[in-house]
Amino acid sequence: MDLERREARRPSGDVHLTPLEFRLLESFVRHAGMIVRQPQLLREVWGPARDADARALRVCMKNLREKLEPDPRRPRYFLTEVGLGYRFRPDARAD
Questions:
Q1: Which residues contact 76 (CB under 8 A, 6 or more apart)?
Q2: Which pTM does this prediction carry?
Q3: Which CATH class is domain 8-88?
């Protein structure tokens, strides 16, 4: 991911991200390895007016996983921490 150029790439090539998906990815990159709670992600990505819209976050996470995970049904990089939030593990290895 190149934050300055606002680009994301996979080994197969460039990945088109919507502005929301890019802001979500950018937030994950800034907090790499840490658990980020849903309310924090909602504020950082959507702003304070949407801090209770967990459905929008789930939809955006699903789309991000489909675009960036090798197997979106078994995420390796974008993990759900049940009851807490999400964690981005950029250094995850294949099992």
A1: 69, 70, 89, 92, 94, 95
A2: 0.85
A3: mainly alpha
